[in-house]
Amino acid sequence: MSGKSAGIALLAVAGGLLLAGTAGADLTWPKLTLSTFAGVSNTDPTYAVDSGIPFGGRAGFTVSKYFGLEGSYGKTYGTGRRVASRNFPLDQYGIDLLLNVFPNSRINPYLLGGWAQISLDEPKHTVLHMTGVEVGGGLKIRLFRETGARWDLRLDARDMFVRNVLPLDDAGDRKHNVFLTAGISMTLANPERDTDGDGVLDRFDKCPGTVSGASVDPFGCALDYDDDGVPDGLDECPSTPRGAIVDSVGCPSDTDGDGVMDGIDLCDDTPQGVLVDAAGCEKDTDGDGVFDGLDQCPGTPPRVMVDEFGCPLTPTVSATELEFLDSGNLVLDQVHFRTGSAALLPKSYPSLDEAAAMLVKWPEVQVEIGGYTDSQGSDEKNRMLSEARAKAVLAYLLEKYPALDGARFTAVGYGEANPVATNDTAAGRARNRRVEFKILNPGVLHRER
């Protein structure tokens, strides 16, 4: 059998074994590989090819992920030609089995081995064919990849170990012939789809519907460093704090302009200029009811009345108002009625007017007007009388002071309950006949301050 016939037989056998061993392999195989090469050689001195320059091409199939078959043909230009009329005294043929070590990596080392033949031009246009084996390996370094193709820089080293024939010296001996080459390799395959264009092929993509432009992980799923729902690559504000509400490009908003972003801000209607805490809520360090940032007198002592700027009021507040602010309860013992009647006496008006002026200042305060009597008379009669007197006080206030909202007030009669003095003396009974204003929502009063 001739050397070429042996090579064809080897190719057929190896191909059959590879196809049988890769049944059910990935549908992107086989892949066609085409390469060019040029380099340097070190051949047997008998060939008289001094410092030969080999060049040529290779073609092969990668029929599984790791294995492939390749055929190569090259010529060697020699300065020490055996035939003066020819510049290319050597022809090289090879059929090899390739093992790809890292087929999907940017740098893919490979090993090779197989049948080899060197044909040497001799005088009188005779050609000597010398067959043997070759072994070697190299690197494929990816230059770039496009749909269905990969381009590599290919570096290759191989030793063609062939038997010399007559009339060469050392006929019958196997000689080493080393070729070091470099070239460009192109691998063509069935085009693999990347439907969402994220750079991860569909067969590897675990998130196939990625939005165009989003950065993805090796599995094709969108990255979102700040976890705001806008993928990296599209997020124009990639370091948004957790919990903040963002717009379509991933940037947070701050509706009230307090420096705490919406979604994190627990008090999202803070007035302009107010200093806030980490949760976006107003601070009032001195507790005067004027928020820090607006308070022009931030060190106001407790219980001091202030203006809208947080500064103490110049006028002195009345004792009645201080009692009202401090206790949330105001006892009016200067409110007088006709004996056994709910008719107010004129001498009651100053005390009621003072209370009304104070109540106008606190429009959010809910007030209970409670009427009390002494212990003379029956319990039921005293309760009814005290209720009538409480209603009379409320009627006076609402009639004289239209700014007061009647819905803020309730009138209750307690009769002789809760005495503040003894009922055994005239002075004690006079004190027990009283009207009390009780604040029902003292929290509002404190806040207003």
Structure description:
It is built from six helices and twelve strands. With 449 residues, the chain is an alpha+beta fold. The chain folds into three domains: 3-188, Porin (Beta Barrel), CATH 2.40.160; 265-311, no CATH class; 319-448, OmpA-like domain (60s Ribosomal Protein L30, Chain: A). It is rod-shaped, with a radius of gyration of 52 Å. It starts with a helix and ends with a helix.
Key traits:
6 helices; 4-stranded mixed β-sheet; 30% strand; 60s Ribosomal Protein L30, Chain: A; 449 residues; Porin; 12 strands; 8-stranded antiparallel barrel; disordered N terminus; alpha+beta
Radius of gyration: 52 Å
Q: Roughly what fraction of the amino acids lie in strands?
A: 25-35%
- Structural classification: alpha+beta
Strands of the widest sheet, in order across it, are 1-2-3-4-5-6-7-8
How many separate structural domains?
3
Helix content: 10-25%
Q: Number of helical runs?
A: 6
CATH domain class name of the largest domain? Mainly Beta
| Rounded mean pLDDT score | 84
In N-to-C order, the SSE pattern is: HEEEEEEEEHEHEHEHEH
Label the CATH architecture of the largest domain: Beta Barrel
Low-confidence stretches: 1-27
The N- and C-terminal alpha carbons lie at a distance of 113 Å
Instruction: Determine the CATH topology of the largest domain.
Output: Porin
Main pleated sheet:
8 strands, antiparallel, barrel
